[in-house]
Amino acid sequence: DLNSFMYQTVGHEVIPLYAAATGVPLYRQQILGTTLRHERDYDSAATAGESGAGGDDGSRDSAAASTAGLDETESMVPLLRAVMARHPEANALCSGAILSTYQRTRVESVALRLGLVPLSYLWKYPVLPSPSPAADEAQLLRDMAAAGLEARIVKVASAGLDEDHLWERVTSSEGVTRVKAALKKFGAAEGAALGEGGEFETIVVDGPRELFKRRV
Fold first, then answer.
1. DSSP string of 191-205?
2. Helices (H), strands (E): how many in the chain?
3. How far is CA 12 from the centre of its chain?
């Protein structure tokens, strides 16, 4: 789903390159189902109650019916079970959510059901005490840049942002300034400069040397 609130699909072609760039094992699986639960907080029990279509004859029709009754969030469950089988020492699941309760609660739901500790290191980062008087809601992007992380915009979906912003290095002072100026024209809410509301999406092409052995 190009406009999924849960998963980013734009730029997925480069994902295999992260394994080579970081040396960290990569596991992938197709996203099945669609967005059935639109509420901010995720209720897996309600989703399970709505799924249940499809028989056990292995036919294509029954498989399609089963998928149709599956919320896309549940695609994480079999993938993480496979990871846990390969890495029994794994005991936590980290979410990159910054301001999106929608995303955070869905990752937490899956983690807790699998016995994993849910982590959200960046949660509410913009409202933490400012490290300097000049800090603003985009301070996270500046801190990422200072840490050596390079993120580029690969999708725009907000008034004020257009194709000229594609491939903008948003983890830079210049990139932050351009994005904030563009969004401000339409009175974007605080935190929009982080793209957490879907204003834009990015891919990371480089990062701290402790993690990235080479550039993507």
1. TGGGTTTSSEEEEEE
2. 7, 4
3. 12
Task: Give 117's DSSP letter.
Answer: E
CA dist 25 → 52, 88, 180 (Å)? 33, 14, 36
Site of tokens 């469950």: 77
Residue 70, amino acid: L
Q: Nearest to residue 120, comparing CAs of 101, 144, 135?
A: 101
Token pair listed for 36 = 């059935």
Residue 187's pLDDT is 75
- pLDDT for res 54: 40
Distances (CA, A) of 92 to 63, 149, 164: 31, 23, 39
Taking Cα atoms as reference points, which of 197, 206, 202 lies closest to residue 152? 202
* Predicted model pTM: 0.85
Cβ–Cβ < 8 Å for 101, 156: no
Q: What are the average pLDDT values for consecutive 10-residue runs of the chain, which has 216 residues?
A: 89 95 95 89 71 44 57 96 97 95 95 97 83 74 95 94 96 94 80 88 97 96
Total residues found in the chain within this entry: 216
Please tell me the number of Cα atoms within 13 Å of 104 on its side-chain side.
Answer: 13
In eight-state DSSP terms, residue 12 is G
